[in-house]
Description:
The protein is an all-alpha fold. The protein is 69% helix and 3% strand. A two-stranded antiparallel sheet has the order 1-2. Helix 6 (157-187) crosses helix 7 (194-205). The longest helix has 32 residues, at 112-143. The chain is globular, with a radius of gyration of 22 Å.
Amino acid sequence: MPSKESDAVTTPEDIDFRITPAQQALASCTGAVLTSVLVTPLDVVKIRLQSQQKHSQRCFLYCNGLMDHLCGCRPQDLQRQWYARPGHFTGTMDAFYKIAKTEGVTSLWSGLSPTLVLAIPATIIYFVAYEQFRVRLKQYYNSTKPKNISHMEQPFWIPLISGGTARIFSVSVVSPLELIRTKMQSQKLSYFEIKSALKMLIKQDGFKALWMGVIPTLCRDVPFSAIYWTNYETFKRILWSSNQPSFTKSFVSGGLAGMIAATFTTPFDVVKTHQQIRLGEKTIYEGKSKTMVGSSFETFQEIRRMHGVKGLFAGLLPRVIKVAPSCAIMISSFEYGKIFFNRR
């Protein structure tokens, strides 16, 4: 007599995507590297364009397509830093051309290597956790259905809960490491001295300080993940009419879902950016990571009071242009990786 679990696993989609967590990790790692390689030049150009306008800039956010990283601008080191190299650009395409021509094509990936130390593990944790949560919730939901149903259903709340929970897990694990990396910038420590940086941070600010600034990140990333995965699974179900995996359809589904999620969570991104910059300046330049920078709600109210509702959607178009291809590349690479390992 077949077991309940064997009855639950019946659809082609579930069979084709049933691989081990280790294989899921490899698939997400491949997608993370590919995403960062393709998306990073866009952010490098954006930072170079901004740096020629803001000469007093102390901190900036560097995005490699996977996660944001806070970087400090030390005046005494500007002549050696890629973001402070001289150049006059009239626009995005002009910056691409001049940077590649005068500094070499590899300059378009300046600053990428250090950020991957955290971005790749964070991405692996996030995608593997999502797959594990989704499959188990789907199995549990369908185990309560009559046995004569020949297919597994996936209601919208499964990817919604799985995406949000996976993001909480990923951010909670990686956030302390990102704060340590920021602290290391203030002390000019190398990655080989990370143990010293950890001890120094705990001694100075206490154990809870490891999660300083995690609330603004969760306020942005958890809704984003919940909205993204809910829409992605919906678009995938619509486009994959035959349940046959497709790189192109995954790419389109991921891009559309990314656009929707980025649009709805832009206010959270604006608030998070303001708080992260403030916390970064205090941590890097004042050595006070425990100093309060105001709650997310206070920052939200401040932005709305100074700039109106429009200020909460500042940078909407650039954010969508950056997030949509990142999501499309990452998810299509991840899905293809799962197909590859399953066929092996």
